[in-house]
Amino acid sequence: MFSNSDARAAADLPLLAGLNPEQRAAVTLPPEHALILAGAGSGKTRVLTTRIAWLLQTGQVSPGGVLAVTFTNKAAKEMLTRLTAMLPLNARGMWIGTFHGLCNRFLRAHYKLAHLPQAFQILDTQDQLSAIKRLCKQFQVDEERFPPKQLQWFISGCKEDGLRPPDVEVRDAESRKKVEIYQLYEDQCQREGVVDFGELMLRSYELLRDNDAVREHYRRRFRHILIDEFQDTNKLQYAWIKMIAGLPGEGSHSAILAVGDDDQSIYAFRGARVGNMADFVREFSVQHQIKLEQNYRSHSNILDSANALISHNQRRLGKNLRTDAGAGEPVRVVEAPSDFAEAEWVVDELRQLVKGEGYERKEIAVLYRSNAQSRVIETQLFNAGVPYRVYGGLRFFERAEIKHALAYLRLLENPRDDTSFLRVVNFPPRGIGARTLEQLQDAARAAGTSLVDAVGSLPGRAGANLGAFVAKVDVLREQTAGCTLREIIEQMLESSGLIEHYRADREGADRIENLEELASAAESFVTQEGFGRDAVALPVDETAELTQSPASQGLDPDAPLLNEPLPAPPLPVDADTGETLSPLAAFLTHAALEAGDNQAQAGQDAVQLMSVHASKGLEFDAVFITGLEEGLFPHENSLSDHDGLEEERRLMYVAITRARRRLYLSHAQTRMLHGQTRYHIKSRFLEELPEDALKWITPRRSGFADMPASFSIAGGARPAWGNSGIHSNFSAPAALPARKTEPSHGIAAGQQVFHNKFGEGKVLSVQGEGDDARAQVSFGRHGVKWLALAVAKLTVVE
Questions:
Q1: Which of 143, 229, 304, 363 is catalytic?
Q2: Where in this chain does the record put each UvrD-like helicase C-terminal domain (predicted)?
Q3: pTM of the model
Q4: Which residues are registered as beta bridge partners of 389?
Q5: Residue 74 annotated in active site
Q6: Within this chain, do residues 762 and 631 fall inside the same structural domain, yes or no?
Q7: Does some domain include residue 116?
Q8: What is the strand order of the sheet 66-70 is part of?
Q9: Which is nearest to 509 in space by CA: 489, 234, 628, 517?
Q10: Are residues 426 and 570 in the same domain?
Q11: Among 240, 289, 224, 218, CA closest to 260
């Protein structure tokens, strides 16, 4: 037994040096159940690893008597690395790992009792989906009515709730069929000797539940159980913890140290139950609760904002973050007239942070609530030549659903595009298998034609299915003839079945938002290129030189070139190549350029873009939280649900506490959603922040129409939208900015200049005077452009 005198002696151990009082109290707790409320940036990983080291060094437990559960392999490896640095021990035999990793180890040791082969295999998510598809094909399951992806979620959800097929409630014919398929899937996995991730947890739990000797062995063995990120545990994981530890009165010999933060519980959509923390306190009669409130990451203006915000949540255990780092800079709040202007401002401020204030790009993060928001920001970063990386996901034009949509659009423009044909001929699924496509490719190769031209040579059902797909694309091409770019995309999304396909996907909401954002991308493309959103052909804009004379278009031959917006010619001309382009072809070129360029290389200093969910556990010197508008953040799906709104507030809390030194919050008066301009009010979360911690960069409750000429962002840079012709009076962006009454461009050949769209370039020549002056500029990424200086707003780079 560890005595009080032993504890006093152990308190002087070197490994406790540098811990604050709360951390030290958590590390040196007696062997009893305890809950550690660890705030953001409070050093919880240090507490967990030091607790284990302290238990080992003081002889309270052997390495084999510790069970430590983390949520990621990265966290488990970090814990082991720190432990081996603290103590001269071989930590490889210790049970430290993720829930799934530890359950795999447990089942390997007891494979016979678990009724598994010794060398059982684990199905990852994709393997599991393939197994379900194979089963559906074997038993002729109607995949239109029961999509394999939906069946996968159903099965995984049942396992997370600890339910086998006989335990699932059957409410109707549909649920009965799903349960039947679940049973067939279980039989198939057992026959093949494989387990999925959910099975690892469920079978481990059941083995402990049903085998008294095994359960008692592990309860005696693991004297200390430590669980990280306890707020993210689901129903089955908590049940497994109770089974392996034993509730009070069940002959338990274990002490559980649960570490978590209910204010950072943001994974309810994955099954996480923040209520597990309160249940743990009640069911284990927890007497020790320690709050780690000392933050080592952020300044107090940032922390005060986080504390004030989260205090509006009612169902929380309660804590307040504090720091010794001082107040720091105020939290900057910006209101932009549009999402495009918001993105311009973000990029302008990013450039100032890097060039003017010495921030590293990799230490700057731009956060957004919805992945679809990244598209506008990515476009501005691309145009400005700023390297960026989308953390935990793909860039907008690289996302699978967007690639599918673009493939359909390319087939409208060019039906003989074999790459696009192969990508979507069976997506969404329409009964065209790999064997059919192999036959089609053989036929095309033999005839020396494209795939679409070879479709007629395939007989039977295969040829009929392929012919139906080709006919679908042909009909869509006829239906969209003469339509605007936005109308083409909207019609394609409906006719292709992409929206319907992802609507049946439990996690398809993000993908649908991205597809709808594609319509907004098209709308922004035509607007930002300087022509009306209803145009059905690509007009000349301020960035291109006319290759047809005014006289050839029936216009006044004496009219100054590009002095006013000109009507679009029936066949628009690309000034760089001389090629005639449809609006669709121009947009596809734009998408390809953005998808294939500006990708940060490994190790390159690049701005980090990510959703707020993806940012959890990370920290940055400067953080931008964008899109703070009602319906976006908090998300519209949460507004009618109290629990949902509290989770959104926790998500905002996580976002705020990512920032170390500087925090920016922004919202837009108008935002392009689903190809339409929507008007927004600012998020309620902005009203819940302490006024004395904020600095309103733009006049609060005011538009930009009255913004003084001396207005400046930190570092003295004018807001980028001041050069964009975008106004704050809820009007659509102007086709072309208004001309200066007294133009004075000061541009000369040989100068380095910056353009909001094309980035940096070199002036090759200048022609004309006053409003008619034009400059020929070579941009590294976009080639040589003729720009009207009364419009282009070039900035000389010193």
A1: 229
A2: 300-617
A3: 0.71
A4: 608
A5: no
A6: no
A7: no
A8: 95-98, 66-70, 224-227, 255-260, 34-38, 288-292
A9: 517
A10: yes
A11: 289
Q: Which of 24, 44, 149, 369 is catalytic?
A: 44
Q: Which sign, positive or negative, has the C-alpha torsion 739, 743, 745, 748?
A: positive
Asked whether residue 635 is assigned to any structural domain, the reply reads yes
CA distance 722 to 63: 63
Same domain? 145 vs 227: no
Catalytic (active site) residue 45: yes
Tell me the C-alpha distance between 475 and 498, whole Å: 17
Distance CA 369, CA 751 (A): 40
45: annotated binding-site residue? Answer: yes
d(CA 163, CA 167): 5
State the DSSP string of 706-730.
T--TT---TTSPPPGGGGTT--SSS
604-636 confidence digits (pLDDT tens): 789 999 999 989 989 999 999 999 999 999 998
Q: Taking residues 410-430, report their average pLDDT.
A: 86
Task: Quote the pLDDT of residue 521.
Answer: 83
Is 436 one of the annotated active-site residues of the chain?
A: no
Task: Tell me whether residue 246 is annotated as binding.
Answer: no
448 carries a ligand binding annotation? no
DSSP per position, 315-354: S------B-SS---SPEEEEEEEEHHHHHHHHHHHHHIII
Domain count, the chain: 5
Tell me, yes or no, whether 93 and 238 share the same domain: yes
Looking at the fold, whether 698 and 615 belong to one and the same domain comes out as yes
Q: Is 39 annotated to bind ligand?
A: yes
Q: Annotation-wise, does 42 bind a ligand? A: yes
Residues 665 and 771 in one domain: no
In this predicted structure, which of 123-127, 467-471, 590-594, 717-721 has the lowest mean pLDDT? 717-721
CATH code of residue 465: 1.10.486.10
Task: Please check if 603 is assigned to a binding site.
Answer: no
Are residues 91 and 70 part of one domain?
yes
Domain containing residue 168: 121-192
The residue from 28, 50, 264, 439 that is catalytic is 264
Alpha helices in 529-606 (DSSP H): 583-596
H-state helical runs in 339-459? 339-351, 357, 374-384, 400-413, 418-424, 434-447, 451-454
Q: Where are the beta strands (DSSP E) in 693-797?
A: 694-696, 752-755, 759-767, 774-779, 783-788, 795-796
Examine the fold and report which residue of 290, 310, 343 is the final residue of a domain before the chain moves on.
290
CATH number at residue 125: 1.10.10.160
CA-based angle 70:72:73, to the nearest 5? 100
SS3 227: strand
CA neighbor of 306 nearest in space, from 290, 289, 323: 323
Q: Is 323 annotated as a binding residue?
A: no
Q: Is 228 a catalytic residue?
A: yes
The answer to whether the annotation marks 291 as part of a ligand binding site is: no
Q: How far apart are the first and last CA of the chain?
A: 73
- Would you state the pLDDT for residue 722? 39
Q: What are phi and psi of 521, to 5 degrees?
A: -60, -40
Which of 24, 410, 658, 793 does the annotation list as catalytic?
A: 658
Q: Which two tokens stand for residue 493?
A: 């999304």
Would you say 297 and 41 are in contact if contact means Cβ atoms under 8 Å apart?
yes
Per 3-state DSSP, what percentage of the chain is helix, strand, and coil (rounded to 5)?
45, 15, 40
